[in-house]
Specification:
With about 325 residues, the protein is an alpha/beta fold. It is about 35% helix and about 15% strand. The chain has a single domain, classed as Alpha-Beta Barrel (TIM Barrel). Strands 1, 2, 3, 4, 5, 6, 7, 8 and 9 form a nine-stranded parallel sheet that branches. Strand 3, helix 4 and strand 4 form a beta-alpha-beta unit. The protein is globular. Bound molecules: the ligand O=c1nc2n(C[C@H](O)[C@H](O)[C@H](O)CO)c3cc(O)ccc3cc-2c(=O)[nH]1, 5'-deoxyadenosine (5AD) and iron/sulfur cluster (SF4). The site of iron/sulfur cluster has 12 residues, from loops. The FO synthase complex consists of two subunits, CofG and CofH. Its EC number is 4.3.1.32.
Length: about 325
């Protein structure tokens, strides 16, 4: 067990929930004609960022449905606000966030090399869940969950020296062998490029009104097992993240989990909206004998290696202490 576990204070901005994929476990996605389908406007995003900054957050998590541009209505919405591509819009949002004093972390699904190259100087880290290397029913309607496409995106991020978050989603129809294979693929990518800062071991949580509503969530024992295996497979400089709003982290920490991800004092978890964030004092109680340490969305070793652009330099300097954690 590590002497401390880390977490990050963030704001979650669900920029668009229009998505070309149809993962059967997901309630984030909306059909384009659904009244709740959205592309958030700059004017509604700014106050969310300002409120988060005031509450002491260091990160903004920008989340998107994947390649929404494949859907004609979305293309129109984007045009209406003056952008010809999602990536151009993300760049603008990142610049605004940096001006307000938040470090961007973008998770926009599969992206190509050129798109990642544009986003790199404006993001302190980026993310894409590998989910699983297996071919499962839940992903049959999701071209972007093809394992080789996900691996390609993670590889490009490595070539570009982008500090990266990935992970596996546990309990979506994959076997124990599949979990091991997925973790081995991630370890291999990290051994080649050295860019994986954390691996999320996310427990699937069934949502009402989805095709997977009646599928059981993984048990705590299964989660403990996969974390023990992950700690064996992944190099020691890669953190293992579990989500404290989805599962009690206490025993998982004893198995090797050492990060609790982003928690937000001002926004909800838009992917798991039923699961409320614990407060920092509740987190303290949840982790028992270990201590909590606040980090930034870029891990200390990537600050030391200088894996960030000049655009982010002043903000990172301002927010971090000598060790690369959150300055207190
Ligand atoms: O609030 C959430 N944050 C999620 N995060 C955010 C994450 O906890 C933090 O942004 C990172 O640890 C960086 O600080 C993700 C980030 C990724 O790159 C990929 C997947 C996720 C998944 C979630 C999630 O389900 N809920
Ligand atoms: C951002 C990440 O959120 C995860 N995600 C999507 N739906 C669910 C769910 N029902 N339960 C847990 N995690 C989920 C996926 O792993 C996605 O990549
Ligand atoms: S999990 Fe992501 S890719 Fe899958 S349907 Fe939901 S928003 Fe789209």
């Amino acid at each position: 067990m590590d002497e401390f576990v880390t977490f990050c204070r963030n704001v979650f901005v669900p920029v668009t929930n229009v998505c070309r994929n149809k993962c059967t476990y997901c309630t984030f996605r909306r059909e384009p004609d659904d009244p709740q389908a959205q592309l958030m406007q700059i004017e509604e995003i700014i106050p969310i960022l300002e409120q988060g900054k005031k509450a002491g957050c260091t990160e903004v998590l920008f989340t998107f449905g994947e390649y929404a541009e494949e859907i004609p209505q979305y293309k129109e919405w984007l045009k209406d606000i003056g952008y010809s591509s999602t990536v151009d819009y993300i760049c603008e949002l990142c610049k605004i966030a940096i001006d307000i004093g938040l470090l961007p972390h973008t998770n926009a699904g599969v992206l190509n090399y050129m798109e990642l190259e544009k986003l790199k100087p404006l993001n302190s880290s980026m993310g894409l869940m590998l989910e699983t290397t297996a071919y499962i029913a839940a992903h049959e309607g999701s071209p972007g969950k093809e394992p080789s496409r996900r691996i390609k995106t993670i590889r490009y991020a490595g070539e570009l020296h982008i500090p990266f978050t990935t992970g596996i989603l546990v309990g979506i129809g994959e076997t124990l062998d599949d979990r091991i294979n997925s973790l081995l693929s991630i370890a291999e990518l990290h051994e080649e490029y050295g860019h994986i800062q954390e691996v999320i071991i996310q427990n699937f949580t069934p949502k009402p009104d989805t095709l997977m509503a009646k599928v059981a969530a993984p048990t705590e024992e299964e989660m403990m097992q996969v974390i023990l295996i992950a700690r064996e497979i992944l190099p020691n400089d890669v953190a293992i993240q579990v989500a404290p709003n989805l599962i009690d982290p206490h025993l998982l920490i004893q198995c090797g989990a050492n990060d609790l991800g982003g928690i937000s004092p001002t926004t909800i978890d838009w992917i798991n909206p039923e699961a409320e964030w614990p407060s920092v004092s509740e987190l303290n109680e949840m982790v028992h004998e270990v201590s909590l340490k606040e980090r930034l969305p870029i891990y200390p070793q990537y600050i030391k290696k200088g894996w960030y652009s000049d655009t982010l330099k002043d903000l990172i300097n301002d927010l971090s202490d000598e060790e690369g954690y959150r300055k207190t």
